[in-house]
Amino acid sequence: xxxxxxxxxxxxxxxxxxxxxxxxxxxxxxxxxxxxxxxxxxxxxxxxxxxxxxxxxxxxxxxxxxxxxxxxxxxxxxxxxxxxxxxxxxxxxxxxxxxxxxxxxxxxxxxxxxxxxxxxxxxxxxxxxxxxxxxxxxxxxxxxxxxxxxxxxxxxxxxxxxxxxxxxxxxxxxxxxxxxxxxxxxxxxxxxxxxxxxxxxxxxxxxxxxxxxxxxxxxxxxxxxxxxxxxxxxxxxxxxxxxxxxxxxxxxxxxxx
Amino acid sequence: xxxxxxxxxxxxxxxxxxxxxxxxxxxxxxxxxxxxxxxxxxxxxxxxxxxxxxxxxxxxxxxxxxxxxxxxxxxxxxxxxxxxxxxxxxxxxxxxxxxxxxxxxxxxxxxxxxxxxxxxxxxxxxxxxxxxxxxxxxxxxxxxxxxxxxxxxxxxxxxxxxxxxxxxxxxxxxxxxxxxxxxxxxxxxxxxxxxxxxxxxxxxxxxxxxxxxxxxxxxxxxxxxxxxxxxxxxxxxxxxxxxxxxxxxxxxxxxxxxxxxxxxxxxxxxxxxxxxxxxxxxxxxxxxxxxxxxx
Lengths: 257, 295
Fold this sequence. Notes:
The complex is a heterodimer.
Chain A: E1 6-15, E2 18-28, E3 33-37, H1 44-51, E4 59-65, E5 71-73, H2 79-88, E6 90-93, H3 97-100, H4 107-117, H5 123-136, H6 153-165, E7 171-175, H7 183-199, E8 203-207, H8 211-217, E9 220-225, E10 228-234, H9 235-240, H10 245-252
Parallel strand pairs in A: 3-8, 3-9, 6-7, 7-8
Antiparallel strand pairs in A: 1-2, 1-4, 4-5, 9-10
Chain B: H1 23-38, E1 44-45, H2 59-68, E2 74-79, H3 86-98, E3 102-103, E4 112-116, E5 129-133, H4 147-155, H5 160-173, E6 184-186, E7 190-192, H6 202-205, E8 211-216, E9 221-225, E10 231-233, E11 260-264, E12 271-275, H7 278-294
Parallel strand pairs in B: 2-3, 2-4, 4-5, 5-8
Antiparallel strand pairs in B: 1-9, 6-7, 6-10, 8-9, 11-12
């Protein structure tokens, strides 16, 4: 594989007259973690949903280099193929774990769902894989048969990550994975994510408003304001030497501790 | 065979059309049935009518029966396997009156069998039609409340979520605890709810020589399993599908292979196990009596 894993050209999405994101183009290379930062309402999540095929952009194309089928246009795929892609080669980590989990069934069933969806029919094996992943995301094995409703916010987020990574995806979309968690839990989760990205050679697109998270996890950064990408570059470069006025403001508004 | 003569009024039933429903309605239902037979296990929507009995008492089944019944038919109606419960008796009398058909309690003699919650123990044969009364036709309903989503799941045959529910059952109870309405895959394609029959009856659906029609009145859906169609109950490789077994035999006929109902017979908690299929039980008792007389 020589080309980029995910490639977008001129992605634009409008909601009526309101522009959510406009003319976004970038390439994501295998093993790379791309951060998208910006304030609330700057179109980060809309862009992410367009990339993941959950929203149809009004203009532009998103192409993805699949493992076996060559390069595909995400929005021209049949629904069946797109859904298959979404549950095998992709992962999607929601900000609110309740949206990404099945709250009515146990943690083990949550992790095993993707396996069963692609044809796993051996209970013992599914359970074993689920246990392995519980350990990998540092969840207590005793909680394997508990429902996520009995989990804390940080545990739910870990479970959501395990549920997505169990199919060994190549590309993970993350929407504020640490949003709404307290700082110590955030730190552990970030540590975990960094380890997993490394270990499984994941590519990821990470949406966040927290520059600290971006600094820790991402290789490259895109700064969005009012639906436009106003600056992009290597993370350290953007954060240490911001060029655009908005980026300067963002960097300056980090609270010193 | 269906009787399609217009204005064919039974003298006893006065102003009603033959088999209660008007001819256009019956035609519409037959079209839905044909489509259902053509796509085994697929739920075909139909314009369900108000019937002279409440939802949940068999309005779906009774409409399907009304659409397919003719004067040459012999009708049997069972409720939980029994021919003599209120529901079974009134539906049988209803059709005797409005469709002028012969009725029977014997499985072999019947051409159309409308059933609630059981498949008869006596093996069915070619040419017989089994009509099921279905309360909730959508097998994925409890897992996915959105109709648009369940339809998409059926269209793309994404049935992982059903397997998740079985996983959950084993994790919670150590075995697949679902005992009735056990999900099946029809002809390797559509996930189907076999209506609330006990899972004991699931193997009888597989490659059955009789035509199986399923009618859901409240939800207005018809689906079908054509004769000799493979019907597979879902399971795991290491937790295979199993049917119920009893240590007891039927207290009346001594059957060890039929589905048994448990009855409490007195205030001391004395229990009795008897066949749920009354016709099967009586046939066997009759045979045993005759065999004894010969001695």
